[in-house]
Every structure is written in structure tokens, then in C-alpha cells.
Write a structure and sequence with these properties.
Elements lengths: L2 E5 L2 E3 L5 E8 L7 E7 L6 E6 L5 E3 L7 E6 L4 E6 L8 E8 L3 E3 L3 E5 L2
Parallel strand pairs: 2-11
Antiparallel strand pairs: 1-3, 3-8, 4-5, 4-9, 5-6, 7-8, 9-10, 9-11
């Protein structure tokens, strides 16, 4: 059974930081590209960051220079370090495993407000 479990969301003031974690099980983690998506109220889900099985990374323009995606294959974990957070980063953040089949976590809420 495949499970992706996100953690680390919460409330933070503008300019603050959060680190999201995603624990994967039931997949050959090292063979999967991993990604973080987000969905704000009334908006479509969008890709935020992606890391390949060889640790190449890509980011959507709005988070470049502020967010960093990383992975630990020994622990089956993927992370999203989010710095200089803005109110427009408020969304539910989802972990995504990309292989022959895509898998999704349940999401974790990130709220950026003063």
C-alpha cells in the first residue's frame, strides 16, 4: 500500500519560514521523481517544485530563490524548505510521487498572514 504523509504545515507571518516533510512508503522511493504541488482556495492545483531521481530540481517562477526541495533516499523523505513566505503562498500543499503511476498525499495547510 502506497502512502505519502505530509507534515510541517501551519500558520506563519509574512517573511517567515516553514519546512514541509513528506514520508513515503510502499514505493521504490529512489526510482521516483518527487514533487510538491499546492492548491489555494478557488484556484487550480499547481506544481511548486520537483526533484528527479538523480536530484535535479525545478521550481515554478514564483518560488524561485525562496523555496528549496530536497530528498533523502535513505529515509524515503522529501522536503520543501520555504523561506520569505508571502500571503500568496497560502494553500494546501501536496506531496506527489511520479513514476509509472502517480501518487498523492493528503495535503498539509500552509497559511501565511499577519
Amino acid at each position: 500500500q502506497v502512502q505519502l504523509v505530509e507534515s510541517g504545515g501551519g500558520w506563519v507571518q509574512p517573511g517567515g519560514s516553514l519546512r514541509l516533510s513528506c514520508a513515503a512508503s510502499g514505493i521504490t522511493f529512489r526510482a521516483y521523481a518527487m514533487a510538491w504541488y499546492r492548491q489555494a482556495p478557488g484556484k487550480q492545483r499547481e506544481s511548486v517544485a520537483r526533484i528527479t531521481s538523480t536530484s535535479s530540481t525545478t521550481y515554478t517562477d514564483s518560488v524561485k530563490g525562496r523555496f528549496t526541495i530536497s530528498r533523502d533516499n535513505a529515509k524515503n523523505m522529501v522536503y520543501l524548505q520555504m523561506n520569505s513566505l508571502k500571503p500568496e503562498d497560502t494553500a494546501v500543499y501536496y506531496c506527489n510521487a511520479q513514476g509509472g503511476v502517480n501518487f498523492w498525499g493528503q495535503g498539509t495547510q500552509v497559511t501565511v498572514s499577519s
